């Protein structure tokens, strides 16, 4: 027999992965959680059927969402991570001894339980003593915070389902307030290539720009996400990701990477003309 | 009913596109040629079942294979294009009034006939008076050439089937000889992500490096190619694609683009650490 997982990247495009075995399938209060074992990608994990990560390429997403802000401002001490129940973002953050505290706010405890059990590759640092895990709505959590974090990473699901509120004006305004004057916000920004996703990207970008004086977009090649062309939003109160990068200083840390390097840091902010036009255009 | 085209990106990964209609299917002396109409990508064209281009994203491949060398050396006058029967590479080249002559050598005349009929979006400039179309084996054609071209673009199919000889040591050596002292060679280089393709990339890179003093790799996001992460090899006798880029001069040409811009020119040479390691490693 053959077993195939299929994700619809658009109504007319399907991406299918041969599966050896389904390791877990459960319905939490918020969403359906599945983990599969596959010959090409190792284990992979989906929420409501949408790809969250594979063991083969999660390093790309997690290195790019963490090291771009960390190399821009090495003095980041306090970090808030919203979403990211798989632990990959926290794993990369804990590599910096200079980080003192990480609040990780994940709405769905069941996601963390499943990942601890089946995805140790990403969940391995959730017990780091600097990490404080909270199972609540990130949107509500951030409302009461003021001047507390040097970095907020919004590692949300797609803006359909439980992640939806994380793409609103109110949310980004509260993030601004929760950040110190050195504050940086990084947001997973979807793909520009398929129209449903591009709409979310434009909306997020436009809303973040209402609050943050510095607002840039960078990209990475993530083969198992729709189109493989994934964007991140970089917003800050004062740091510019290119001007303020001190490559020698970051390289002196000696952190071994598989995707990120300080050339790609700068290079990833060079985005295609059609993406620039989408970002500059009106929200539909 | 539903009609779906499926390409195997690896033995364990499938990419499927909903098709409205198959517009053409023929077997030439060299390969099977198909053209389809689809709601997501417009028309698309395959050889031996492998995706060559879609109307939606062919601009990315063609802009990146042409404008990177053209912006590096604006004095390119004589160009040899090998493969590229769809005409997209020639279309982009003909936008430069400074180019005097283009030899296009395509092994399979049937490909050009089909594209002229069904893909006018790419084939539209094949009748430009500067273009000399030859239907023969590029490998043989280039053997007799010496000091003739300022630019050779190897826009080949994957190195399985008729394109295979275009990935050999003999071929790259002959390209070196066919180039002037200002010569640049650009080679489509496959994806680093899936192992079969990565092997071809490593082999091509290693062989090109035996002849050319400047040898770099750049990348683009091409959603309908395997993994969406596509590489190009840039090799030259003296021009460095970053040092010799004069962005102001190229921008003064006023050519409208959808993907390429002079920031992405430089940014595309910043490649992930794992790709650098593949390129530096031994051939398997």
UniProtKB/TrEMBL annotation, chains A, B:
Chain ranges passing through the membrane: none
Pathway the protein acts in: Amine and polyamine biosynthesis; spermidine biosynthesis; spermidine from putrescine: step 1/1
InterPro entries: PABS (IPR030374), SAM-dependent_MTases_sf (IPR029063), Spermi_synthase (IPR001045), Spermidine_synt_N (IPR035246), Spermidine_synt_N_sf (IPR037163)
Gene3D superfamilies registered for this protein in UniProt: Spermidine synthase, tetramerisation domain (2.30.140.10), Vaccinia Virus protein VP39 (3.40.50.150)
Reactions performed catalytically: S-adenosyl 3-(methylsulfanyl)propylamine + putrescine = S-methyl-5'-thioadenosine + spermidine + H(+)
One Gene Ontology term of the molecular function aspect: spermidine synthase activity
Catalytic activity, EC: 2.5.1.16
Residue numbers annotated as active site: 155
Binding site for spermidine: 62, 86, 155-158
Class of this enzyme: transferase
Positions annotated to bind S-methyl-5'-thioadenosine: 31, 106, 137-138, 162
Residues covered by the PABS domain: 2-237
Cellular component, GO, one term: cytosol
UniProtKB keywords: Polyamine biosynthesis, Spermidine biosynthesis, Transferase
GO-annotated biological processes: spermidine biosynthetic process
Protein family: Belongs to the spermidine/spermine synthase family.
Role played: Catalyzes the irreversible transfer of a propylamine group from the amino donor S-adenosylmethioninamine (decarboxy-AdoMet) to putrescine (1,4-diaminobutane) to yield spermidine.
NCBIfam families assigned to the protein according to its UniProt record, in alphabetical order: PRK00811.1, speE
Subunit (UniProt): Homodimer or homotetramer.
Name of this protein: Polyamine aminopropyltransferase
Native source organism of the sequence: Acetanaerobacterium elongatum
